[in-house]
Amino acid sequence: MRYLYEKAATPASGLRLHLNENTGGCSPAVVEALRGITPEAAALYPDYADAIAAVSARFLVPDSHLVLTNGLDEGILAASLAALRPGPATGPAEAIVIVPAFDMQAACAEAAGAGIVEVPLEADFTFPLKGVLASIGAGTRIIFITSPNNPTGISVPRESVEAIAAAAPGAMVFVDEAYADFSDSTLIGDPVMNAHPNIVIGRTFSKAYGLAALRGGALVAAPAALAPIRRVLPPYSINVAAAVAIPAALRDHDHHARYLAEVRESKRLLYDALDRTGVQYWVSDANFVLARFGEGAGRICEKLRQKGIYVRDRSKVHGCQGCVRITTGVVEHTRRLIETLEEVLCAAR
Ligand SMILES: *Cc1c(COP(=O)(O)O)cnc(C)c1O
Fold first, then answer.
1. pTM exceeds 0.85, yes or no
2. Ligand 1 within 6 A of 212 CB?
3. Residue 313's closest CA among 2, 8, 4?
4. Is residue 3 part of a domain?
């Protein structure tokens, strides 16, 4: 297989700023809810009514417009299977992915048997609308868009999503909004979605809500777009722990708001530090910042690792030569990162 999800090394201790996790932890209400799972509840197939009600309230959509998934990863896999399974249409099925973007999209589309059409971001990392439109063909069944994008943190203009959805009415336009909590902007509820029922939005509770280990995500779309996805999803793919954790997390608005504020402050501190040290970066709508350290990027990551701080070297990813992605979550962690980074940069000069 050509497209593999690269699973980053996950050290047990140290400062994990390499996977965009919520390193401050989930809401204490989640842990309370987990403690409340009884032996009887663990023995029964889970019920999702409460989780669905909480997600429906969070996104202000009726139940018929959403489906829960075992992390957004499962949502990407299910959407790929639904869009790419052999149908009456002839010709090889194709998936359009933007590079660089989240590895799982091409990996899942390929696993579903599709050919992958890669469209590179523009050199300045703006969205390649013309390139995507030019790549749409008879075989196009799914188009993946990530907004805000990972690893750049840059959001995709809604007009671009609309133009693509209009140009490929027979394809699924999958908008991965894994980081939309941090940008405070979403296509859910936007008139663009009503006008284009081929748009499917993917969300996760891993990042902003800190449930990465529990695995919870959701897809939001018009009922007709969700129907083929519901057909490929196992009926009990969300376990009871996630089913009780999701509503507990979504109802703790204060915890969520506090974490978003930490992320905003962390980004501000990191931008200032990068400005001081003359390192190029991209203003991010997510909970991480991509910075270009140049040729020394690998060495800098290694030096930070030796000091117990893990960041993600993205040098080998298309267009990201010399770039490192740094999670900006808890302010205290960001201060530690900045202090250590400044030491490492000073020593290198
Ligand atoms: C983290 C991430 C996901 C996966 O989220 P899970 O819910 O943990 O599976 C999906 N898309 C993007 C862009 C991500 O960064």
1. yes
2. yes
3. 8
4. no
Q: Does ligand 1 lie within 6 Å of residue 70's CB atom?
A: no
Ligand 1 centroid–CA 288 distance in Å is 13
On whether residue 260 sits in a domain, the answer given is: yes
Range of the domain at 173: 28-251
Residue 106's CATH number: 3.40.640.10
Same domain, 286 and 301: yes
- 138 and 168 belong to one structural domain: yes
Distance CA 209, CA 50 (A): 17
Choice from 176, 177, 284 to test ligand 1 binding pocket (greatest atom count within 8 A of CB) = 176
Amino acid at 41: A
Question: Across-strand partners of 211?
Answer: none
Residue with tokens 């992320």: 263
Residue 225 is assigned to a structural domain of this protein: yes
Is residue 323 within 8 Å of 294, Cβ to Cβ? Answer: no
The answer to whether residues 291 and 274 touch, using CB atoms and an 8 Å cutoff, is: yes
From first to last of the 349 residues of the chain, give the pLDDT tens digit.
677 777 777 777 889 999 999 999 999 999 999 999 999 999 999 999 999 999 999 999 999 999 999 999 999 999 999 999 877 666 789 999 999 989 999 999 999 999 999 999 999 999 999 999 999 999 999 999 999 999 999 999 999 999 999 999 999 999 999 999 999 899 999 999 999 999 999 999 999 999 999 999 999 999 999 999 999 999 999 999 999 999 999 999 999 999 999 999 999 999 999 999 999 999 999 999 999 999 999 999 999 999 999 999 999 999 999 999 999 999 999 999 999 999 999 887 7
The answer to whether residues 263 and 225 belong to one domain is no
Please give the distance, rounded to the nearest whole angstrom, from the Cα atom of residue 102 to the centre of ligand 1. Answer: 8
